[in-house]
Specification:
six-stranded mixed beta sheet, binds manganese (II) ion, 15% strand, single chain, alpha+beta, 738 residues, 52% helix, 21 strands, 31 helices
């Protein structure tokens, strides 16, 4: 038993190039295929072998070996992956069109459409030079992904081809070795990982790593050897303990142990800036059982033997990774304080983990049939759709790289197209990902058919529908939750333009109003050139800059008026003292120009006092807040009365605006069953949305209910209050400000 483990670790630790020495024959392949697929069309495989050995006759590899060895090995790898006959035949034939005089038509006439299409696609992939400049590179990624979308076997054969080439890399000149290895690390290994082909990924990475960084490879290799020597005894012991305990509970399991592979050790050391012996999960035990139920039972048993490390338990069975990986992971502390990771899964999950999408074929002929393979690969195909739509190669490359390595969330458009966004993205990010206009006009979102707030966090598999309104504009509040740089920059851009425009207009209003006070005409001063002198004197650029500064509340109009209107005029026509309030009344009656119009919604330069929460119809007044535009309060708001009169500004509700404002009402009622639903029904029957409700019972058998509702204006609110008062058992209804 113990020997098994050491042996397995032994193979893990062997130098990657050692694998190159193995040579398969046609008979090896035939017998391998027969084992997992007794009904396989062996004649087709034989025919492909004969065909390929004929057309490659006389050709040699760089190593000096007959070329035939290469397609044979590729076919062997494919049979080890338990691929279907078509893939194995394509493995034999994959280089015939490129390297011999054979045409795709010929392949088609001999082997039929399916194999010919595969060979054709593989040939096209082979012509791609990934290491050329970025523009070409992106183009190639695209082709590659598209090929994969049509038939995933193209990629699998291509990966097998690459694996054998990597195993025999040492025969190439050194500069070519590095280039191929780099390409393997950048493209092939991540793709294998994406497809869930863990075995393939690990071997490709290790082979490439040993080539690109031979000295680092060697050092880690030595440390791994040492670790193996030092830990083999206690790993045997753990293995014994686990097996014995599982037998006690009647669970049949395969237990094995492996050391983290060299390249992932290297990556971990680089990423976390740690030394070899600071990595905790170097050694992992894998327990493979028969059912999901046993997975959890096994987890419980392991936790009963050793103490689990907090925060290290991961349930990928109920939450599979995007590449469909399923397993339970836990780390425990054993004697001596060592940490050991356990991975627990079923045989089917194990096959998926090792072979990824390739495991799909395994079950086609076996007794286990995967339901709806289509769904499993849907994300993949839809991922391809995304690639088609990106036009900029640089952006494309970025997406691919990020996507292959970073955490992301996959969501669907109502048409079922896949979109990939960074984790934590909101419907607003999604809207901007669709189109800038969709983002700018986004008013709401429906996720899986339900309305959600715009700050909802998207989850894998969500279907998102964006609700738009042509007159809607982005809100600066969105900046608080958007994740994508596109959304952020588009919103910022909009906010900046809007802010500049609004503060410019506001500044002009305020300044004109100030000139009006002294019976002077602003326009007259502009024409006379008085402002140009003033700008020069105070070092300001121009009118736009000054007005914007006023609007932002950074510049006081009085100082400007003092500088421009001669003192005698100011004295002569000093406005008689009016109380702020009576002035407002007067202004509100005559439709004077110095009045700022506000709509119900917070816009860029206007916000509403939380203390009094004005709604359209309330008498209001504005106050210029430095750098933040105008805050609107109700006239009777105590906060307003304490503000600096100089910075007050008259505001008026924009009657044309149709936006809603939040309002709060308090309903005191007799505490009776059904009363609450009666109240909320009355509110709903007026088409009013309740955004929040709070109910509590108080003494005397009373209940106090507060509702936050969205209201269009004050008369709307009065009507609501009147309707609620009509309800039997309702004692009082009142509006709550603030
Ligand atoms: Mn090849």
């Amino acid at each position: 038993m113990g020997e098994e483990i050491v042996q397995e670790i032994g193979t893990r630790l062997s130098k990657p190039a050692a694998a190159a020495t193995s040579r398969a024959t046609l008979e090896d392949i035939i017998s391998a295929v027969q084992k997992y697929n007794p009904e396989a069309d062996l004649d087709c495989i034989r025919k492909a072998y004969v065909f390929c050995s004929n057309v490659h006759k006389g050709q040699k590899r760089v190593s000096g070996d007959p070329f035939l060895i290469h397609p044979l090995q590729v076919a062997m790898i494919l049979s080890e992956m338990r691929m279907d006959t078509v893939s194995i035949a394509a493995g034999f034939l994959h280089d015939t069109v490129e390297d011999t005089l054979v045409s795709v038509d010929e392949i088609r006439s001999v082997f039929g459409e399916e194999i010919a299409t595969l060979v054709d696609a593989i040939t096209k992939l082979s012509k791609i030079n990934f290491s050329s400049r970025e523009k070409r590179e992106a183009e190639n990624y695209r082709k590659m992904f598209l090929a994969m979308a049509k038939d995933i076997r193209v990629i699998i054969v291509k990966l097998a081809d690459r694996l054998h080439n990597m195993r025999t890399l040492q025969y190439l000149p050194e500069h070519k070795q590095i280039k191929v290895a780099q390409e393997t690390l950048n493209i092939y290994a991540p793709i294998a990982g994406r497809l869930g082909m863990q075995e393939m990924k690990i071997e490709l990475e290790n082979l490439a790593f040993a080539t690109t960084k031979p000295d680092v490879w060697e050092r880690i290799e030595r440390q791994v050897e040492q670790l193996k020597k030092h830990s083999s005894k206690f790993m045997d012991k753990i293995n014994d303990i686990v097996k014995r305990k599982l037998v006690e509970f009647g669970i049949k399991a395969d237990v094995s142990c492996r050391v983290k592979h060299q390249y992932s050790i290297y990556k971990k050391m680089e990423e976390q800036k740690v030394e070899f012996d600071q990595i905790h999960d170097l050694i992992a035990f894998r327990v493979i059982v028969d059912s999901v139920k046993e997975c959890y039972e096994c987890l419980g048993i392991i936790h009963s033997i050793w103490k689990p490390v907090h925060g290290r338990f991961k349930d990928f069975i109920s939450m599979p990774k995007t590449n469909n990986y399923q397993s339970l992971h836990t780390t425990v502390i054993i004697e001596g304080g060592h940490r050991i990771e356990f991975q627990i899964r079923t045989r089917a999950m194990h096959a998926m983990a090792e072979w990824g999408v390739a495991s799909h074929w395994k079950y086609k002929t076996g007794k286990e049939v995967e339901p709806k393979d289509e769904i499993k690969f849907r994300w993949l195909r839809q991922f391809m759709e995304l690639q088609k739509e990106l036009s900029d190669p640089a952006e494309y490359l970025d997406t691919v790289r990020i996507d292959l390595f970073a955490s992301e969330v996959y969501v669907f458009t109502p048409q079922g197209q896949l979109r990939e966004l960074p984790r934590g993205s909101s419907p607003v990010d999604f809207a901007y990902a669709i189109h800038t206009d969709v983002g700018n006009q986004c008013v709401g979102a429906r996720v899986n058919g339900k309305i959600v707030p715009l700050r909802y966090i998207l989850r894998n598999g969500d279907t998102i529908e964006i609700l738009t309104s042509p007159n809607h504009k982005p809100s600066k509040d969105w900046l608080k939750f958007v994740q994508t740089s596109k959304a952020r920059s588009k919103i910022r851009q909009y906010v900046r333009i809007e802010q500049r425009q609004r503060s410019h207009d506001l500044g002009q209003d305020l300044l004109e109003k100030e000139f009006d006070k002294y019976g002077e005409k602003f326009g007259h001063y502009v024409k006379s050139g008085a402002f140009d002198q003033y700008f020069h004197k105070v070092g300001m650029k121009d009118m736009d800059q000054m007005l914007a500064l006023i609007g932002y509340g950074r510049l006081n109009v009085t100082s400007i008026v003092e500088a421009l209107i001669p003192a005698e005029k100011r004295k002569k026509q000093l406005p008689h003292h009016e109380s702020a309030i009576s002035k407002i009344f007067k202004r509100a009656k005559e439709k004077s120009k110095g009045v700022v119009r506000v709509a119900g919604l917070d816009d860029i330069m206007v916000s509403f006092g939380k203390c009094c929460n004005p709604i359209p119809g309330d008498r209001i007044m504005g106050f210029i807040t430095r750098g933040r535009g105008i805050t609107v309060h109700t006239l009777d708001c105590p906060r307003m009365l304490t503000t600096d009169p100089v910075r007050r500004v008259e505001v008026q509700w924009d009657k044309m605006a149709t936006s809603m404002r939040p309002a709060r009402i308090r309903v005191v009622a007799v505490d009776k069953t059904g009363i609450l639903s009666e109240i909320s029904q009355a509110i709903a029957s007026m088409g009013i949305n309740i955004s929040q409700a709070n109910c509590r019972s108080v003494e005397d058998n009373k209940a106090i209910n507060t509702f936050d509702v969205l209201i269009s204006d004050i008369s709307h609110l009065f009507e609501l209050i009147k309707n609620l008062e009509k309800i039997r058992n309702v004692i009082s209804v009142e509006r709550v400000k603030g």
